[in-house]
Amino acid sequence: AQSVTQLDSHVSVSEGTPVLLRCNYSSSYSPSLFWYVQHPNKGLQLLLKYTSAATLVKGINGFEAEFKKSETSFHLTKPSAHMSDAAEYFCVVTRPGTDKLIFGTGTRLQVFP
Amino acid sequence: EPEVTQTPSHQVTQMGQEVILRCVPISNHLYFYWYRQILGQKVEFLVSFYNNEISEKSEIFDDQFSVERPDGSNFTLKIRSTKLEDSAMYFCASRDRGNSPLHFGNGTRLTVT
């Protein structure tokens, strides 16, 4: 079975400082992993995805994530937070042969001026 | 950029009533999905639809739920007799062929009273 655990329900950072949102996964298969972002009153937008190519994945808006099999982690990072990054972030896993996305519980990112 | 459109943004209905949630996927997409998020809980997969039939469904998607693509543009989710526990945000999503990512709509908040 597949699952993801987002280790922090809330993360607060100051504008211009680094962002780290943590995600650990569990999968019996080679997983595909994603990060989605949800801004208030908006839909879920894909930030980036990992599908067994390069372990360091670059996404939109300066975000990136590194797949670490030995640690079963897929943490999301950004060198410098912007006010517009304030949103809910979801780590998502799926496995080959299925369309079913398994979502984490989400991490709410707050960015202070 | 093309978007998945969901209407209405908020629907209030009484317990036992039928409700239809409407979605217009991106026009050249082939795969269609419904997900839901009960307040404070994870985003959960409900159903996937391809080539005019359900390709996968979760245990949540029981006989009270049905999906339809009545014409070339709309994709609907019907709940036959709503229960209080059906109150949630319902997200429609679509994608193109291959390993393309899902594009989500902004959601319909369903409140059952």
The radius of gyration over CA of chain B amounts to 13 Å
**SSE order of chain B, as H and E?**
EEEEEEEEEEE
Terminal-residue CA separation of chain B? 37 Å
Largest Cβ-defined interface: A-B, 20 and 24 residues
- The quaternary organization reads as heterodimer
- Overall 3D geometry of chain A? globular
Q: In terms of per-residue confidence, which ranges of chain B show pLDDT below 50 for 5 or more consecutive residues?
A: none
Can you tell me the overall shape of chain B? globular
Q: What is the total tally of β strands of chain B?
A: 11
Strand content of chain A: over 45%
Distance between the termini of chain A: 41 Å
Walkthrough of the structure:
The complex is a heterodimer of chains A (113) and B (113). Chain A contains no helices and twelve strands. Chain A has strands at residues 3-6, 10-14, 19-21, 23-26, 32-38, 44-50, 56-58, 64-68, 73-78, 87-94, 102-103, 107-112. In chain A, strands 2, 5, 6, 10, 11 and 12 form a six-stranded mixed beta sheet that branches. In chain A, strands 3-9-8-7 form a four-stranded antiparallel beta sheet, with no helix packed on it. A two-stranded antiparallel sheet of chain A has the order 1-4. Chain A is mostly beta strands. The model of chain A has no long low-confidence stretch (mean pLDDT 92). Chain B is mostly beta strands and 113 residues long. Helices cover 0% and strands 50% of the residues of chain B. Chain B has strands spanning 5-7, 10-13, 19-24, 31-37, 43-50, 53-57, 65-68, 75-79, 88-95, 103-104, 108-112. In chain B, a hairpin with a 2-residue loop joins β5 (43-50) and β6 (53-57). The radius of gyration of chain B is 13 Å and the shape is globular. Chains A and B meet through β6 and β11 of A and β4, β5 and β10 of B.
